[in-house]
Structure prediction request, 813 residues.
Amino acid sequence: MLMENRERLVVIGNGMAGARVVEEILARAPRMFHVTMIGAEPHGNYNRILLSNVLNGSQDASEIIMNPLEWYARNHIELLAGVRAFTIDRTRRLVLLADGRTVEYDRLIIATGSRPFVPPIPGTDLAGVFVFRTIDDCEQIARYAKGVKTAAVIGGGLLGLEAARGLMTHGPAVHVIEMAPHLMAVQLDSAGGAVLGKAINDLGVTAHCGAATATILGDDDGKVRGLRFKDGGELACDMVVISAGIRANIEVAKDSAMNCERGILVDDQMRTPYDDIYAVGECAQHRGVVYGLVAPIWEQCAVLADVITGTNPASAYHGSLLATKLKVMGVNVASMGERDEKPGDEAVKYEDVAGGVYKKLIVREGRLVGAILVGEIDAYGDLVKKLTTGAALPARRSELLFGAPAGAAGVSVADLPDDHQVCDCNGVSKGAIVKVVQEGKCTVAAVGACTRAGTGCGSCKKMVKDLIEAVAGEVKADPSEAWYVPAVPMEKPALVEEIRKRGLKSVSAVLAELGTGQDPKSKNGLASLLKSMWNDEYVDERDARFINDRVHANIQKDGTFSVVPRIYGGITSADELIRFGEVAKKYNVPMVKITGGQRIDLLGVKKEDLPGMWRDLGIPSGYAYTKAFRTCKTCVGTEFCRYGTNDSTGLGVDIERRFQGIEFPAKLKMAVSGCPRNCAESTVKDIGIIASEGGDWDILVGGAAGASVRKADLLCRVKTKAEAMVMTARFMQYYREHGKWLERTYDFVPRVGLDRLKELLVDDKDGICAGLEERLQESIDTWEDPWAADTRANAYAGQFERTRAVALPVLNG
Prediction:
């Protein structure tokens, strides 16, 4: 409720800077202002640092939201989301919105951030050209990328490389076009850029440095077909992502006749030259500098909050040291201070191109003035400290690069000074973390909730953990992290025991007797758990499933679905292929695609056509939509391949037929390779099986090849297919019973420990193997193809009727 004695604070911009400054203001004076926030995007505030995770699919857009809509309501903030500020009437103290409304202010903060820079080259209006800046951009790029062969990213800076990383996960070959002679020219010198270039080339991205794009070429349908460079060369591609830098978003200020240069001019207290108007973040220009990094912006927000609330009227921002620590496509990169040496400077360099490591120090008159680290960045914290304090350097300069870094063996994090910055994203010092740990916050999550440490890119979480151990003696288990699902405050073993004891066979029964709420994600996790526990006794409640699990197909961005029938071991027949073609024609399927799991994906299927398509295909569901056993990829094996040492195809088919449809805590993928050449990529699967030179089978577990890459661990070696099936079954059931909800095997295996898994599943040290095999067999015996079951029963026909989109209300206050 608006109170008469409260000043009206209006914030134009609901991005990271706008939301952060409001958080800082509320922390100092929670009842001083009636706050109105104006945001062009229809979301709450989110973490742009993690946008590449959304693009590559490792995180859902909802997971990077920092302030959900409920936060605004809880803090009595009026949020005008999806609305653009048009201009400012400084005389009448009004903000005019693009939709015709006006908002009155007593104090005004402009936090409009930045916008992508689109070079003035022909063809940027073609279909298939995107920028990479928002959640919506990520969703559009991901949707388009699934149908293209080759993608090009214009821009070899941090955002361009992150866009390239995200594109890789969607299938296309990716090329990065950089006008400078090397990648990340703002942060790295030529030698560092070359080392980074080799590293990303090894990951499968082709970099074209020193290449200037003259034109984006289009075809007769107005779609991208390639790039033409200024030297006359061309690159064929099907889509283009432009990530050529950013520019301060100062249009609202310029349209309001405010004095601007590269940004909105501000003084040391973030004031503009205009009464009661401030600017902060990427749109602000302070002492000639516009900052695009998180840490300086957080410093600006803290100063502005001090000033505007009067808690520290003398607070001032004096500029920031440009030091940044990044992870670029999995490669650690850090830079600080000056990039290039001047005459008379000392340049200390170490270069290991093959190993992907480059280190450089610039020393001037005995003081560190700049550093670049690629591949190994353990020395970063110590170097930043010496750079900022001007501390004397050791005579042997190499000690700065190869001496034990802070937090490494031999140097305790407890010995760091209190002002040592642990979290660069949020500007959190060691002292701030120690303080909350001493107050009893002894989990990483609790420290993050109090200080924000670890809530940005997450790279500092290990040091946070080390600090907790140093101060409190141990890192306590976070109860909420140990719970199987958020709505039931119990760890999985206790939850399973209680479910069995009480005979709870439906999600609603579990929530009614054991739960604390109706969290939708908890319902999904409980449904999977109950089904694996009770098999055909499980009481199915349709609303406890994801939409994908309800209709047995993957929903796409446009509301259509993809249907992926099972093709056992990647082996099909001419009759099945003809059936695929006939069904695709009958239902006007816009795309038919071969998947990475050796299946055929029918994309763009209308919801109302799903039952008919299942009926006409007559092939079991491939379970590409749920947390279950997905596919078993195979190579040719001994049947045709001259290198094959064992029948990988036959074993793969047997595995798929035996374990099809079995549910797990997360999706599970397999592969069987017929020889150590590993053509089926078995080393990066949840369960991989490889035939050895002697014809035995190696069973590997816990591999990954997505956003995170992990080579699977060798569980055991067996001699026969039958033994391979037994070991597979044991691991599957143990993972089913002990894995956390949504915990992939590449996290599960390290958590349990390979040696412990060998004791349990190979040596049967605890005598559990017979029970594991028996319980898995019960699930196998009760499996029924869901497509056939739903088609036969026609029990849920109404859910496949066409639905209409409805507009959701925007939360205001």
Summary: The longest strand covers residues 357-364. Confidence is low (pLDDT under 50) at residues 404-411, 803-813.
